[in-house]
Amino acid sequence: MIGTDAQPNETTSAAVVLADEVTRVYGEGDTAVHALHGVSVEVDTGQLTAVMGPSGSGKSTLMHILAGLDRPTTGSVRIDDIEITTLGDDDLTKLRRRHIGFIFQFFNLLPMLTARENVLLPLTIAGRQVDPAYFDELIARVGLTDRLSHRPAELSGGQQQRVAIARALVSRPTVVFADEPTGNLDSRTSAEILDLLRQSVEEYGQTTVMVTHDARAAAMADRVLFLADGRIVKETGRISQHEILQMIDTLDLQ
Ligand SMILES: Nc1ncnc2c1ncn2[C@@H]1O[C@H](COP(=O)(O)OP(=O)(O)OP(=O)(O)O)[C@@H](O)[C@H]1O
């Protein structure tokens, strides 16, 4: 049980995800790749945090470790005051179900399920009931009310990502991780999806971490972390798209 293995934190903090000196080495010996070199991050509650950086800088590795999808080589990760690096696989799976929502670049919907079934899947798997009023409100918010009986193949890319957003939010997770959520969408649809993510932060206080290459996406964030060669090289509060592009240029993060 998660409850039994959980290590309560002695100090209280606004951070719902806390990584301390995380390293990740892939492989061994001469071919070892050091993807993260002692990264420490605090993700504050109710905020949208963007993670930017060049290809290969370690963004996906960091996100997977923060979300409990991968384990660090050394270092500590806490989600909602639970140290996850020492949890067994079953407890980690339970923790992900309870605390984490995911949004992926390629939507990752199940093709044989309708939009409604895809949205409800995290609750179905966890054996939990949906609050019907919340479900209706969420579906209206993401604009899927008249698409609930469609299967993914019958939906546009933007509509599929809306299903994925509703699926991530339906269990009211502690934190949503979005990996390049606009990476596979055109510019107008990307803007709509970013608006929805921003709204979920404003309206539901949904803590969200988004990995992105897109300066326009990062400009919607309350906080931007810049990664290079497996290290955080810069952290800022909310800044404009222009300032982000300048920062990328100054830090030579192309
Ligand atoms: N499974 C793996 N085995 C070996 N090396 C890996 C593995 N996954 C990632 N790497 C390496 O770790 C480093 C960081 O990769 P990562 O995918 O985290 O970067 P990224 O910033 O997300 O890149 P991109 O923007 O291209 O997705 C890279 O050098 C990559 O080649």
UniProtKB/TrEMBL annotation:
Cellular component terms (Gene Ontology): membrane protein complex; plasma membrane
CDD domains for the chain: ABC_MJ0796_LolCDE_FtsE
UniProt keyword terms in alphabetical order: ATP-binding, Nucleotide-binding, Transport
Keyword Cytoplasm found: no
Pfam families: ABC_tran (PF00005)
Gene3D superfamilies reported for this sequence: P-loop containing nucleotide triphosphate hydrolases
GO MF annotation: an example: ATP hydrolysis activity
Protein's UniProt keywords contain Flavoprotein: no
SUPFAM superfamilies: P-loop containing nucleoside triphosphate hydrolases
ABC transporter domain mapped to chain residues: 17-254
Protein name, UniProt field: Putative ABC transport system ATP-binding protein
Species per Swiss-Prot/TrEMBL record: Kribbella amoyensis
